């Protein structure tokens, strides 16, 4: 079992980069595989989740040449995928399995999609149900609620679908299936979830329209889209988030994170942290692959608790584990509500973060849709968490959040089961050590 020991020391100081955005990397691999010709995807995420999606496309007959810096994807056009000769393993990735299921539902061949223990517990009915309405033939455990999923490619027809959940994975799975369906698919979601698929469709010139809250896509385009000579993936805001919070809560810190995606459907943490009193500057704003990016500079500051409700959930959805660490050392109470989706992530993040932070001396009340965190800011220990022997529960974001929490602990903290960090941020520990040793 892999574990990580975090020894609290000096401030975090220096300039770092984070891996390419995981969500955008999945989508870049998918859309370049369906493009006509050879694309280059630079600065992509080399986490296991994205490598699994890349391997899936290799199994679907797409040549992909891989180096650490970039991928060369030999796209075969909209109808160029071929039947794999075995099941596709999506590992830990909800995005991988759900987007691939949408894409494969309209092919003319058979596929089986599966993943690790966590993936086989996560809800698939949310995509299987609308895909079946489109005419897809999908079988799975518990009537299609759980993976493995067996997809018999079928002729799909467009539907109008109002998703009950603000989920980019549902939206994107349906947009991909809609490309292969007859007619115009309409998709509405209760709140805007991350819009990387829409932006990448636009980048490739795929004719997606928006009417108010509804997306419209005409299926079976007569001509596909051209390859991208060079698609540069922005740094992952969700990876930067650990250092945004780390630099804020470790006194004396000053950290710049270069070239990070600041798509507003992702950056709820910036708004929340600023309301809590954080010192965050966005510098050198620019664009990459239709996405806004910036360098993010963070200096340490004292935080106060806030209330976070449903209006901020979709754009903060992956940052609640690290936000709960910020809340734990803030002054006063932080109330998170409307976040029931956290229960169906890589782990039940309300339960796992509550348990792990309680072990570090924090008082947390769990609700079905969130938590109430009593920040330690005003105690004698002045925000110091108790050192502990924690575990990730197999969840990469829990593992990295506990590592950052450990930086403000009374002594060394050990975190077990940290191999999962490989799914999104293989260089996390090295990057953290760089900031701990760099002196300006
Ligand atoms: C993702 C969407 C979100 C997010 C996940 C990545 C994506 O999930 O939590 O880490 O790439 O589309 P939901 O769509 O289920 O909210």
């Amino acid at each position: 079992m892999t574990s990580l020991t975090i020894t609290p020391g000096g401030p975090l100081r220096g300039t770092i980069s984070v891996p390419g955005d995981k969500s955008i990397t999945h989508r870049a691999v998918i859309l370049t595989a369906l493009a006509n010709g050879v694309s280059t995807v630079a600065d992509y995420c080399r986490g296991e989740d994205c490598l699994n999606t890349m391997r899936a496309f290799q199994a679907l007959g797409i040549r992909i040449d891989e180096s650490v810096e970039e991928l060369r994807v030999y796209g075969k056009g909209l109808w160029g995928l071929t039947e794999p000769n075995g099941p596709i393993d999506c590992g830990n990735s909800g995005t991988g399995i759900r987007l691939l299921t949408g894409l494969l539902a309209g092919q003319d061949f058979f596929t089986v999609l599966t993943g690790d223990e966590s993936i086989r517990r996560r809800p698939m009915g949310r995509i299987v149900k609308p895909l079946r309405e489109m005419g897809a033939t999908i079988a799975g455990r518990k009537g299609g609620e759980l993976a493995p999923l067996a997809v018999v490619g079928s002729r799909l027809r467009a539907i109008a679908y109002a998703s009950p959940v603000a989920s980019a994975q549902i939206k994107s799975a349906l947009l991909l299936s809609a490309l292969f369906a007859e007619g115009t698919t309409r998709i509405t979601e209760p709140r805007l979830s991350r819009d990387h698929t829409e932006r990448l469709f636009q980048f490739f010139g795929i004719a997606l329209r928006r009417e108010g809250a509804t997306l419209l896509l005409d299926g079976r385009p007569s001509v596909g889209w051209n390859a991208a000579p060079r698609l540069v993936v922005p740094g992952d805001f969700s990876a930067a988030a650990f250092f945004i919070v780390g630099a804020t809560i470790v006194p004396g810190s000053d950290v710049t994170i270069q070239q990070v995606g600041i798509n507003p459907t992702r950056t709820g943490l910036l708004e929340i942290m600023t309301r809590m009193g954080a010192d965050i500057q966005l510098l050198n704003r620019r664009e990459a692959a239709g996405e806004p990016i910036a360098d993010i500079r963070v200096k340490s500051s004292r935080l106060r608790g806030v209330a976070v409700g449903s209006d901020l959930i979709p754009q903060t959805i992956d940052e609640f584990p690290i936000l709960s660490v910020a809340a734990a050392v803030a002054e006063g109470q932080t109330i998170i509500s409307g976040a029931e989706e956290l229960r169906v992530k890589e782990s039940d993040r309300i339960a796992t973060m509550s348990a792990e932070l309680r072990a570090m001396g924090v008082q947390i009340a769990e609700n079905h849709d969130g938590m109430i965190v009593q920040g330690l800011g005003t105690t004698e220990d002045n925000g110091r968490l108790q050192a502990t022997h924690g575990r990730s529960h197999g969840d990469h974001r829990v593992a990295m959040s506990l590592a950052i929490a450990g930086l403000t602990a009374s002594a060394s903290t050990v975190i077990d089961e940290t191999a999962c960090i490989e799914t999104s941020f293989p260089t996390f520990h090295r990057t953290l050590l760089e900031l701990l040793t760099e002196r300006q």
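The longest helix spans residues 237-249. The chain has a mean pLDDT of 97.
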